[in-house]
Structure formats: C-alpha cells, structure tokens
Amino acid sequence: MDVRKILVVVEDVDIARTALQWTLHNLLRYGDIITLLHVFSMTRSKSKKNLRLLRLKGFQLALSFHELCNNFFNTKTEIVVTQGDQDGGKITSMVREIGASTLVAGLHDHSFLYSLAMTHNNIASNLNCKVLAIKQPTPPMATRTRTISFQDSSTNMDFSQIDIDALR
C-alpha cells in the first residue's frame, strides 16, 4: 500500500477543525502522513517582531490541530507554518513541494478555494491532487454525509464538497 501525503489547511475557524476530524475518521489509512499547514498573511508592518508573533500564533494553532491527531494511533503528522497571501498561492506551492495526494480544507465564506477557483480553470489538475472541501451544512439538513462534486461554470469550482452534520 502506498503512503499518501494529505495536506490539511489549518485556519482559526471551526470548520477547519471539522475538516481535520473528517479526514482522520474517513480518509486516513495506516502509514499516511498528514501535513498541517497554516499560512499567515503578510502584514503592512513587516517588523521582525510582528512576523515572529504571527508565526508563533500560527504554530500554536497548528499544535491545537495536532492534538486532534494524537487521538489516532500511529498517526504521522507534520506541521508547517509559513507566510503567504490568502489567495491560495502559498498553499498551492506547498501541495506541490510536499507531493500531496489530497488537499483538505474547511469551506467557509472567506476560503482561499473561492479565489483559487476564480484564477484557475481546474483546481485539481492545477494542484495535481484531490481537493476536498468540508462544509458544515446549515440546519435542518440530513444527518448523513453527502458528497457533492462541483462543476459550476461561473466559478469553475471542480473540488469535492463534503457536507457533514456531526461526527460520530
């Protein structure tokens, strides 16, 4: 069985944690490597102190995600905290750099996936991996998991969206 590299985007929103939990419960296989990636945005003030503080906060956030992984036996987890724009460019380059087979992100109103979809005709082929967007449904939705494949001509979204109600 091949070892897969799964990149999970770490953001300070509940759906990002839910996306990681979904990945651990439904996607992770023995031997797979999960890379937790947090990209903090560049600020106008480029002082070294400010950049260190942003990096530290990002690392603390990633460590809180890492704790979720510790509940799964033999989970191999890496943490990457880096600086970049919120348009998804840094995430795209990290997917390529680590050779990820799957990118998992929580889908929310300010998700980088929307801006990425606007700039690329085919997200998955541009990244050369599966892209899974985990979205918390608005009530009252069925309590089962649904997978929706996007192919919207106005936004060119070609990632899979997975609506979940609750992890059991």
TrEMBL record:
Domain UspA: 4-135
Entries under Pfam families matching the protein: Usp
Matching InterPro entries: Rossmann-like_a/b/a_fold, UspA
Name this polypeptide is given: UspA domain-containing protein
Organism, as annotated: Anisodus tanguticus
